[in-house]
Amino acid sequence: MACTSRLPCQSNKMKAKILITGGSGFLGCRVAHYLKEKYDLLLPTHNELHISHEDAVKAYILEHRPEAVIHCAALSNTWYCEQHPEESHKTNVQGTVRIAKACKLAGAKLLFMSSDQVYNGTPMLGPLGENAPLQPVNIYGNHKLEAEQRAQRNLPESVGLRLTWMYDLPGSRMKLNSNILVNLQKACQDGSVINVATHEYRGVTYVWDVVRNIEKALSLPGGIYNFGSGNTLDSYSLHLEAAAAMNLKEPEKWIHPDRERFSEQPRNLAMDCSLIEKHDIHFADSIEGIKEALLRPYRTE
After folding, report:
1. Which pTM value belongs to this model?
2. 205 closest CA partner among 74, 26, 48
């Protein structure tokens, strides 16, 4: 396989060393699984690398000297962050800054994960580019934006990826999150109702498409990039089409439109990913991505 990143190509004698934080999480464990044969991976536990401790972060990275760090560790539950803002800041902002400072000392490439939640509160409609005006309305979005800004100040060569809501298939044997496909299948099986906003727009991305593009992202110039599937459908329509793609019965009967939520100002997190496309990184549209994932799931067995 040709080398696609700035890292040294592997040889029979040596593989490039990559540190993955959050390696037991939803995204991190899949990144580790995908890269494990090609790179020498460092997958520290929380106790081995506590990102809340600056000296410990610096000592670990300077001791192991990875060529790159893929920083996936985060508190990503938006409700939890809203209830625990100090903990969110400590992990999502301060932890990222500590990693960036240590990478600068070690000369390591840093790839860190941000979120489409930075767009939550932006009054513009349509797909949003990286330079759209930002005024996040929740703690998580504010902290991800602050992490972007401070990581870039400390390490301009770092790359931040604004990720959408990601999903894997309900039958995955790896760690699952609460995602659109899991939620739809559970509601259909339980006979429960899902109320979905008609004034919300956001993309959803197959996690394995993110994982497969991570290696290319290591070669991106320093900066912040939208990184995931686009979408022009409102969330209610997106859920209906996703349920139809899953062949779930009569979705109109148990997926209900919520026309009140966000009616005063639509919630728009839909991203324009034309910037990464210039770097030969491509994602399918949200619905097309779901259809492709259902037809050609990524096997981990």
Report:
1. 0.94
2. 26
